[in-house]
């Protein structure tokens, strides 16, 4: 079954106002182009699940797409603060934000429970942490094997999950390498799943290395080819991180009006990700090039 | 430091040519002597672990929160999720495995963290500054994986760039990562597997503690630092070891590895 | 740190009488040579954890190494019954066997909890199953999020885990492909871990493909090169399954005395796995050959 | 079957040249019409699913308990963990993902199982025969993943090679994989996500049920089979559909694909 479509089609077909949407990727393979398309289509009242935040959280907030956030780390990686987010949290400016806060381990456990269709997942941390006091959704259950009560976090089942990967076939068998974050669990936890990839490849490539598949096709609703879809984050084997972009964001976003202007120029006034990239300049990716380093092939041979 | 060391000032320069960052990194590296599996945050902990591997702990294996183990990056990683960590690494494991099997699985000897505030038992705050949790004065990054590192690692080393009464506090504005002392006061949840913070390396000196109900004690000051100044810069009644030592100055070898091999472009050694 | 040693050294250094030992591998990459070495060294009073049984369970029982078994499937794969096991369970012949029984999902959950140092793992199956009545270690906890009580299974932390893989470096970074069973979880759950491999390779091979590593070196206590260490099971890219061997076992093991003779000739009278293989005949592996099928290399390139 | 079809006998031969295995496989395949994600045990379920893919359900994706999805084996797999399944497969996922995310995660449309005994609501026994659980008359293989397939799949198809009163029983010797009807009588645990057994394909005919408290009903018999004989061979008071049908004989096309393409060496088509 061919599940390929355009990013615009995929987002409009699978996202609704008011949804909880997970955009996952841990400083690598982040579905940035998909976040921009959500802004471009002016979705509202969304709750974003994003374990470890980055510029797209500020961008979605600045575009007023979000009323809620589920996260564990709310800075711009190591590039500074996310000022749209801080204005919301510190001053409810321009509006309050419902912030459902966990640790990274708690977010891992929530996605894992969601992917597993369990009501909750036990976790050995949180004893004595104010996080467990602040968040009423961090609860405890008794241990029938004689230990103390143990904390549990509830399953997270986003209405839509979007992940980005190096490649997939048109049926949606998704392959990724390098740092994989929580993408597989977020994919299985989602009620719907869009996968954006650097390249749609022939299934013979995928099937030459089946252990590389991080999400099998039956979980996938839409496959979209979006080259450079993770910028300013890296994609292993494709392009490097654009630290200057992330640093510049933190400097610029101190001013709410600048964020609005940036969104207008770069998202609303561009038709798609290709036009967005064009604004960066034709040679922008030259300085984000990588040195090739190919894996040693393994032998999948079986019975003759 | 050697002869000619000036008094400690609040600037970055410690000696004629040793910066505060270099001093912190070198003392952090020394504390890793003999340790093997180290969970390192980015920045100074990464630098310190790499330095330790070249000096006091050749068998060290760095584990990053992004799932990378045994990295040998050709360039200094800019964050814990820098893709430069991956080529040539020994493994990249899924994040579920990193959090469930490695951190919670108690496979880490030393977790190397930073924080905005620390208290006398080594509880850490990296969540917010202010007394209104819903509308803090400053919203900080949050736990990330710090809660899990504190709960699962055998020991935590803490590096604090600036030792002040606003960072070494009597009462944290928010207890993000609780010490075992603090956890023991609760009756719900699993006790931390390890000892919590055992070493704190600051721009003034070194504090240590080893048992659940033991407070951080000043055990060494950097050359030229008055222990009374450290007490003044600490927000609680800091205990000072009777056998207080002066730290040994960075050696030319340590400085050479750090400056020439590890961070020649001064990404972290500001 | 070089962790390579002989199989004989590894087993004698890391196993003790009375231990719980996990030998995992799901019809592929089964640590058969290690099981034989346990028999050869005449360990006793062991409890074996093995999700899905096969000939080595019958062999360990026939050699009187086991007083307990933790498992979910107790036939000889599709090759028939395990008669040593059936004699124990049906007639306590020659002695009773403590049998701690779960489903495959239950064993997966037990290893997962063990690897995660959690007291238990929730599981959505077992409601209405007699297995939950028969096994008092399958318990339930309340759901603080409003659902019905949910079944949980206890953590499994073997004293020793042994797994077999295609390759490792001398430090113990282990790589495997094809069907991976529950080996990673069993490895992390074990208090000690021995890995047998078809080949010890230079670390440059391992490090050219770090996502292929299923167990990182810091978890491993001993690495042992044992070519053909999984026979009669397959190793992807190395050799095919030996179904005739497994079928012949089920036929032969109907007679307890034949099992004893087989063990004497094939295990006790051989010094090591190489001698065991030699008894199969010089050309035995000719008919278990495979057709090569190499993976397409992926680019791990990063910043120049 | 066509003219000249003999009466059903208890041997393997159904028609002049159609074996019981072939008949079971072909009717199993037909039941998969329009289904997409199928969890297949080895043997007839694997064969049936492959046949369905070539006939009534071209989009079908087979998932094996060993973690293999979308396999296109060059040779018929001998078990669900045969390494022949791997080269050219769409994915091999870890067993934790298969059990937690695919089966428990409710991603399976049809789970295709066998069993030693089945009851009127489709509860299955694959654990033991006898009334002493500790010392059974016959110890069977056990659950394997059957409990999880029953609990997580939207539907279960059951194929039973021999329809007799010892296999279709009033009371199971051991309830390994409970029907939703049975699970509903318990107050502990999570209810099965799906409908349980909806189709049973035997050497005599086909039974179906669709709702939690509905019994298996005989809805079709193979040509030449007397429905009264099916009732006699069933250990409970079997309901027979008022619009009972005769199954359609295997077509030459089905037989050709099965015999010439899928199992030319007769591994399963005994």
TrEMBL record, chains A, C:
InterPro entries, A to Z: CoA_trans_fam_I, NagB/RpiA_transferase-like
UniProt xrefs under Pfam families: CoA_trans
Coiled coil (UniProt feature): none
Superkingdom of origin: Bacteria
UniProtKB keywords: Transferase
GO molecular function, one term: CoA-transferase activity
PANTHER family, A to Z: ACETATE COA-TRANSFERASE YDIF (PTHR43293), CHOLESTEROL RING-CLEAVING HYDROLASE IPDB SUBUNIT (PTHR43293:SF3)
Family: Belongs to the 3-oxoacid CoA-transferase subunit B family.
Protein name per its UniProtKB record: CoA transferase subunit A
Organism: Brevibacterium aurantiacum
TrEMBL record, chains B, D:
GO MF entries: CoA-transferase activity
Pfam family for this entry, one: CoA_trans
InterPro entries in the cross-refs: CoA_trans_fam_I, NagB/RpiA_transferase-like
UniProt cross-references to SUPFAM superfamilies, sorted A to Z: NagB/RpiA/CoA transferase-like
PANTHER family linked: ACETATE COA-TRANSFERASE YDIF, CHOLESTEROL RING-CLEAVING HYDROLASE IPDB SUBUNIT
Membership in a protein family: Belongs to the 3-oxoacid CoA-transferase subunit B family.
Protein's name according to its UniProt entry: 3-oxoadipate--succinyl-CoA transferase subunit B
């Amino acid at each position: 079954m061919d599940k390929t479509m355009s990013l615009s089609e995929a987002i409009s077909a699978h996202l609704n106002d008011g949804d909880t949407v997970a955009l996952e990727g841990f400083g690598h393979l982040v579905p940035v182009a998909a976040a921009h398309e959500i802004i471009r289509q002016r979705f509202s009242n969304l709750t974003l699940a994003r374990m470890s935040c980055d510029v797209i959280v500020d961008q979605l907030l600045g575009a007023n797409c979000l009323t809620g956030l589920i996260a564990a780390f709310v800075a711009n990686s190591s590039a500074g603060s996310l000022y749209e987010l801080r204005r919301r949290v510190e001053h409810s400016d321009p509006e309050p934000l419902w912030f459902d806060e966990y640790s990274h381990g708690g977010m891992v456990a929530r996605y894992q429970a969601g992917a597993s269709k369990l009501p909750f997942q036990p976790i050995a941390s949180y004893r004595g942490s104010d996080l467990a006091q602040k968040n009423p959704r961090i609860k405890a259950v008794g241990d029938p094997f004689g230990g103390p009560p143990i904390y549990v976090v509830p399953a997270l089942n986003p209405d839509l999950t979007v992940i980005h990967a190096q490649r997939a076939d048109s049926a949606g068998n998704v392959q990724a390498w390098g740092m994989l974050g929580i993408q597989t669990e977020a994919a299985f936890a989602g009620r719907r799943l869009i996968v954006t990839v650097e390249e749609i490849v022939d299934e013979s490539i995928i099937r030459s290395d089946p252990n590389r598949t991080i999400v099998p096709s039956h979980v996938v609703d839409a496959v979209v080819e979006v080259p450079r879809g993770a910028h300013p984050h890296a994609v292993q084997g494709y392009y490097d991180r654009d630290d200057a972009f992330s640093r510049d964001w933190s400097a610029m976003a101190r001013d709410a009006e600048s964020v609005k202007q940036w969104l207008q120029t770069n998202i609303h006034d561009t038709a798609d990700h290709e036009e967005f990239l064009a604004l960066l300049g034709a040679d922008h990716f030259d300085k984000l090039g990588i040195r090739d380093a190919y894996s040693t092939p393994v032998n999948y041979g079986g019975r003759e | 430091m050697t002869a000619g060391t000036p008094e400690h000032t609040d600037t970055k320069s410690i000696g004629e040519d040793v910066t505060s960052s270099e001093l912190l990194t070198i003392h952090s590296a020394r504390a890793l002597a003999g340790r093997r599996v180290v969970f390192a945050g980015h920045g100074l902990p990464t630098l310190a672990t790499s330095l330790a591997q070249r000096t006091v702990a050749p068998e060290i294996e760095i584990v990053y929160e992004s799932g990378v183990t045994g990295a040998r990056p050709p360039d200094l990683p800019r964050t814990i999720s820098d893709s430069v960590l991956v080529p040539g690494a020994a493994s990249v494991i899924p994040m579920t495995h990193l959090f469930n099997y490695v951190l919670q699985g108690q496979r880490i000897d030393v977790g190397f963290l930073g924080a905005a505030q620390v208290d006398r038992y080594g509880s850490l705050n990296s969540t917010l500054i202010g007394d209104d949790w819903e509308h803090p004065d400053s919203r900080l990054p949050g736990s990330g994986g710090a809660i899990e590192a504190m709960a699962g690692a055998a020991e935590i080393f803490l590096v604090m760039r600036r030792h002040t009464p606003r960072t070494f506090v009597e009462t944290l504005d928010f207890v993000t990562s609780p010490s075992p002392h603090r956890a023991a006061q609760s009756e719900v949840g699993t006790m931390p597997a390890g000892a919590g913070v055992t070493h704190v390396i600051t721009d003034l000196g070194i504090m240590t503690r080893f048992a659940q109900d033991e407070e951080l004690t000043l055990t060494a000051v950097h050359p030229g630092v008055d222990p009374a100044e450290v007490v003044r810069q600490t927000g609680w009644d800091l205990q000072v070891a009777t056998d207080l030592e002066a730290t040994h100055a960075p050696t030319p070898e340590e400085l050479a590895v750090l400056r020439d091999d590890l961070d020649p472009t001064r990404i972290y050694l500001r």
